[in-house]
Amino acid sequence: MTDSNLLDKMPTEEESLKGSKKKQKEEEAWKPQGPRDPFAMLDSLPEAKQQEIQRALHLFSLGPSLPKTLQQAKSHTYRFWDTQPVPRLGDSFVTHGPIVEGEASFREEPYSLPPGFSWDSLDLSSPTVLRELCTLLNENYMEEDDNTIRCEFSLEYLQWALQPPNWLPQWNCGVRVHTNNKLVGFIAALPAEVRVYETDKRMAQVKLLCVHKKLRLKRMTPVLIRELTRRVNQQGLHQAVYTAGIVLPTPLSSCRYWHRPLNPRKLTEVSYPGLRQNMNVQRALKFYRLPEVTKTPGLRPLTNEDVVGLHSLLQANLRKFHLSSRLSLQEVEHWLLPRENVIDTYVVEGDAGTLTDVVSFYGVSSRVLNHPVHTGLRAAHLLYVAGTTADPVDLMEDALVLAKSKGFDVFSALDVMDNKSFLDNLKFSVMDKSLHYYLYNWMCPNMSPDEVGLMFPN
């Protein structure tokens, strides 16, 4: 290249000035113009750095700030829960009733959020809003401690889980970023009739609390809970029931998860937590083999014509337990009528035309992260099993057979209700994960898992 060519390529003084201004403009683009968008800042980082930050936040969220055992909880300081009407750790009650009497007045104004964020009531009848919620949950909701398996909700599942009869849009409480309207926080509640010992109480069922991973250090969870409480109080309700995998003040009952492999080979390949040790694939396939067909005579899918009979059967069974739902006909129809890839219910009809037995399970999909072969996992979760004529072990084995035929990889159950009667016999293994039941603003004696009859899917 000649000197003249080089001179042609060299910038003039005017061009240099323009380049300098352009560079300065690019640098100033990072300066805050009002509240900063934390997602724009973090998303500009290289992918590897973003993953490193997400792993660190995940580990932080599982650290000592969230005790998973009562022993850990004893040395934990609950700055938020110590301000709420819930039993303190170690408290025990023999009386029944509200901890704080409901006040006639309630806070009118929403609680304050950090700068750059705003509240939103999510109308989940809108497909666009439902997809936004699906994205938030699938990217930020529960995942296994080793960060290998993450829940993956479908639109159909969320419609089922969050839109039963009488659901309220204002109880779907969301948080958005001002700059781009991105949904980054969520908590929901559903109105429910709950029986606690001998008391029937209308209260809120709280579920699906989720905060974006990049915001978990901003203590947004207590603000979400306070705001939802305010919205529930606006409807005249002052009690709530909720579950959590961590220990808060104070569990009404603590239950254990049990699981039964349906596809042992796949579970072994993805290192599914809680698998029996020292069992190779061939031995596992033989050990967990199931019959090809069901054995309970007359077992069939639930139909619309069965709803009234199933309502009577369930209500008679649930009265046995100290904590249970009082389901309406419309709620039985919503929660238990079969929906493809969401809920399956099977019943047995007696000679007199009445329903004698029922077993139902709902499906939860998970994403398998960083695996060379498998990308997904399907788990069936036991909802209700009750009956008067069928052997409970046979009925549950039929549920395992049916779940396997539908492509589920594992069957999960809690040791609530009468479930202990079949868990060992059907080769379920107890996991190291617990689910704790809580009541907000209600005191009563604690109860054992087999006295719990309340089931509500997250």
Automatic annotation (TrEMBL):
Q: Which residues form a coiled coil?
A: none
Quote the EC number. 2.3.1.97
Region: Disordered, residue numbers: 1-41
Query: Domain Glycylpeptide N-tetradecanoyltransferase C-terminal, which positions?
Result: 269-448
Record's keyword annotation contains RNA-binding: no
Q: Which GO terms describe its molecular function?
A: glycylpeptide N-tetradecanoyltransferase activity
Q: Which SUPFAM superfamilies match?
A: Acyl-CoA N-acyltransferases (Nat)
Q: Report which reactions are catalysed by this protein.
A: N-terminal glycyl-[protein] + tetradecanoyl-CoA = N-tetradecanoylglycyl-[protein] + CoA + H(+)
Bias regions of kind Basic and acidic residues — which residues? Answer: 10-30
Locate the Glycylpeptide N-tetradecanoyltransferase N-terminal domain: which residues?
Answer: 104-255
Superkingdom field: Eukaryota
Regarding protein family, the annotation reads: Belongs to the NMT family.
Protein's job: Adds a myristoyl group to the N-terminal glycine residue of certain cellular proteins.
> What protein name is recorded for this chain?
Glycylpeptide N-tetradecanoyltransferase
Native source species: Zoarces viviparus (Viviparous eelpout)
